[in-house]
Every structure is written in C-alpha cells, then in structure tokens.
Amino acid sequence: MTTLHQLTVPYFDKTLQNLERWIDKAHDFATAKKFDANTLLSARLAPDQIPLVGQIQIACDNAKFVCARLAGKQAPSHPDTEKTWDELRARIRAVREYVNGFKPADFEGGETRTISLPWVPGKVLSGSDYVLEFALPNYGFHLVTAYSILRHNGVDLGKIDFIGGLPFRDA
Amino acid sequence: MTTLHQLTVPYFDKTLQNLERWIDKAHDFATAKKFDANTLLSARLAPDQIPLVGQIQIACDNAKFVCARLAGKQAPSHPDTEKTWDELRARIRAVREYVNGFKPADFEGGETRTISLPWVPGKVLSGSDYVLEFALPNYGFHLVTAYSILRHNGVDLGKIDFIGGLPFRDA
How far is B113 from chain A, CA to nearest CA, in Å? Predict the structure, then answer.
C-alpha cells in the first residue's frame, strides 16, 4: 500500500531536481551555440501550445497545489512573472522547499478529502481520484512537454535525465 | 492508502483508451489534409529520438511489463513489427485486454517483490520503487512524447484528450 505522501512529495522533489539539471543542459547548449539561453523559454512545439516558460510554471503550480489541496492548506501565490531561467530556477527551488515541508501526517484523510478545482465550478473529486487521475498525469504532462521542447531545440537530453537516479540494490 | 493495482491497471486501461482516441484524431487530420495517416508513424521531435511508432510500442510494453513483473508472470511477446495505425491499434487493444486481466490479488506482495530489469544486470529494485520511480514516469514519458509528436505535426489534440474523463461528482 502506498500513501498519498509517498505518491507525491518524493516524486516532486526528485523530478524538480531533474528539471534543474535540464536547465544546466540548456545553458550548456546555449553556450556551445553562442545564443542567449533565455530565448528557449518562448519555444513551443505547436503555435497554439503554451511556451516552455509556461510549461514549467504550470508544473511548479501542479506540485504546489497537489500538496496544498491534499492537506487542506492555502498554497503560496506565484504570479507567473518569470522571464529568465534564473527566475524559473528560483521558483522551482521555492516550490521544492514548499512541497518538502509536507509530512505524511499532513495528508492523513487526504484520499477522501473533497477537492475543488477552480476551473470546474460546482464539481468535486475525491483526493484519491484527483491525485491518480488528474494531478500526477497532468504534472507529468507538463514536465515531459518541457523536456520535449528542449529536446526538439537540440538540448542534449536523454531518458536518464528524465528518470533521474534509481534506488537499485545488488541482486 | 493506494494499492499497486489501483496505481496501474485502471490508469493503463484509461490512458490506452485515450491513446486510441488520438489515433482517431490523427486520421481525421490526415483525411482533412489528404495524406496517408501512416506517414505520421515515422515522425519524431529530434533526429536521434525514437519515432512515433516506437513511442507507442514502448508505452504498450511498459504497461504490459509492469503488470507481469509485479505479479511475477511472463508477459506475452510483441515483436515491434507494426507498420500501420491498424496494427498499432490491435497491439494497444491486446495490451489493454492483458492488463485488465490482472486482479488486485495478483499484485499482493508486489511492493516488496524483487524486480530485475533486463538492461540493468546484477541490480534489482523493489516493486514499489520500480512502479513509483521508474515504470509510471517512464510510461507517462512515452505517452506524452507520442502526444507531443502528433501535436507538433498538427493533429488537433488538447489537454482533455490527454487526461480523459474524470469522476467528478456534484459539490
């Protein structure tokens, strides 16, 4: 059996650290190609898609809101004003610190907690359905989309940069 | 608390159905633009990336192997010979039928089961670590990448096509 805390906090913590390594690689690529790394932030894979900066802002918001909603707390506000990688990195770190502040006890009863989403008025999900059917797939969606935009633009990323380290032990 | 079965089977079942709807939309786009929909299968976002057909084959294999490994069973073989959307659809349906055959009792003890991955000889993961840190993120990775390749090529997909239906109830 897996707790809501196990499903969320360590996963967000690890993948937000992975995301910071993609930023390092984006800078390596920009340095090698002699362009301003911040130009990547407006890149997208389709003209009606949210650009890279927005994909990362949304991923950050997902991680933050999942924890806040499951614990019945008010999440801190981040007004989506980032224009540079440095500012995005600061946001990623702030969100990582925020989610790491949640302890297993904060999510007790979270599975059956009633979750309202501001863009679906009059309807609710259970905490479990929210996490499994919406929040985790949606967080992954924006994370992979950010990765794909960087990859499409030539940044040297591979699967291991996406997955990160794994707790292997000797067979 | 969430069981391994709740984390995997309903999620694979739903997202493989979502994937079939993306195939319908790819055909709608090809019909409107008067091209052979199967040409999309070789599309990719970077020259050293696995093409769309491979992204879908890998997603299918992920779903299949997760269930087989957690239950300590041998997964059926799929030799990656698909060249058309019809063949891919048949594979998606076969995998969906396979994963839906697993019952909660099949995964009992799965959290502590020792999982070996053929590409990491001599090392193992616990069933829990395998699911949470590798298998689910990796499945999502290939699913979103398939979506992104279609989106980048102009197929009319939006977030709701990725997430699918949600079990909302009245507030």
Answer: 12
Please give the Cα distance from A45 to A162 (Å, whole number): 18
User: CATH homologous superfamily of domain A4-33+43-162?
Assistant: dinb family like domain (1.20.120.450)
Residues A123-141: tens digit of each pLDDT:
999 999 999 999 999 999 9
Long-range contacts of B110-114 (CB under 8 A, 24+ apart): B110/B4, B110/B70, B110/B71, B111/A1, B111/A2, B111/B4, B113/B69, B113/B70, B113/B72, B114/A171
* Token duo for residue B135: 């298998």
Pick one of 3.30.450.20, 1.20.120.450, 3.90.1300.10, 3.90.550.10 as the CATH number of B4-30+49-162.
Answer: 1.20.120.450
| Burial category of B138 from C-beta neighbours within 10 Å (exposed 0-12, middle 13-18, buried 19 and up) | middle
The closest CB to that of B171, out of A2, A111, A124, belongs to: A124
ipTM above 0.85, yes or no: yes
* B132 → chain A, closest CA residue: A7
| CB-defined contacts A:B, below 8 A | 141
Dihedral sign for Cα atoms in the order B31, B33, B34, B35: negative
Q: How far is CA B30 from the centre of its chain?
A: 23
Residue type, B27: H
Interface test with A, best of B115, B116, B126, B144 (most A CBs within 10 A): B144
Chain B residues near residue A168 by CB distance under 8 angstroms:
120, 123-125
- CA nearest to A155, candidates A41, A11, A14: A41
Residues shown for chain A:
171
Cα angle B148, A155, B133 (rounded to 5 degrees) comes to 65
Hey, where are the domains in chain A? 4-33+43-162
* pTM flag (> 0.90): yes
Contact A45 B152 (CB under 8 A): yes
Q: Residue range A42-65: average pLDDT?
A: 98
Residue A38: predicted pLDDT: 98
